[in-house]
Amino acid sequence: MIKLVIAVHHFFDQWNAPVWFSERLRAGFSELEIVHLPDYKRLDGEIPDAEILVAWSIRPEQVMAARKLRWIHSPAAAVHQLMFPELIASGIVLTNAREVHGPVVAEHVIALIFALAKKIPGSVELQQKHIWGQQLLWDETPRVREVAGATLGVVGLGAIGRPLVRSAKALGMRVVAVREHPEKGSDGADVVLGPAQIDELFRQADYVVLAAPVTDSTRAIANEERLALMKPGACLINVGRGPLVDEFALAAALREKKIGGAALDVFPKEPLPADSPLWDLPNLLITPHTAALTDKLWERHYALFFENLRRYLASQPLLGLVDKKKGY
Q1: What is the pLDDT of residues 148-179, one digit of tens each?
Q2: Superfamily of 2-99+294-313 according to CATH
Q3: Nearest to residue 35, comparing CAs of 53, 16, 58, 13?
Q4: Domains 2-99+294-313 and 101-286 share a fold
Q5: Which residues have a catalytic role annotated?
Q6: Residue 42 CA: distances (Å) to CA of 36, 62, 75
């Protein structure tokens, strides 16, 4: 009998697989032995004879001990935490949930763009102070603006970038995108650039959105030099992963009003420490890694994993395959 171990444990409740997830899998796949762990305490004992693992992460020594392990599925989109030599060199197949999260994160980006363009955070702050701030909001720069006609720069045309492009075009935005292989096509963007041309995206965009995976080439991709290329009123939005942004450089750019604003949903250290200087930066909108949240989250996870289990048992290609050499 094939053994499937589910070991998904997080301090945030919604990231944890609900009980019904494994119960429905047992009903649908009676040929599997399914072990759903509430935490990681028993993982060392359960993993040696597991063939399939659902987990955010696993330690190198656990990979070495898991002699029967053939497939790891991550409920996350980012898998850089799994990119260690023992797993990369193994024959273990890795899949992720990028198609579960991507469209939902793209919706969040659109919300952030409107919030920045229409100065929604400033209105909320004034409301709390009982201040009618019409003149105050108008006098601030950059001024309240229209989204239609603005240029959106998207770094990464993956599971987030593709639906984001569609939504942006529907709003009348011009879209410039950077993707690793421009020859794969535009996916609806007006201009597609290669990684070597990313500086041009930072120059042109009114909103720069980081939606790329974390690799050696994308760490601190929004650094001091590139932030200096942005228009004075342009905004940076990061919904990829925290390491994509040089936070010190961004803080300086915001304090000195070199860019118009920023919105961050992800950070190198989460939860963001209470004493982080980011909390008090002018014109920075912080959302606490909520871009992928939806009341349908685990239904979406279940649909993907159910289909992949069916494919695995039928020896068919899996969805959401990760290229372990590339890291995404």
Answers
A1: 999 999 999 999 999 999 999 999 999 999 99
A2: NAD(P)-binding Rossmann-like Domain (3.40.50.720)
A3: 53
A4: yes
A5: 241, 270, 289
A6: 10, 12, 20
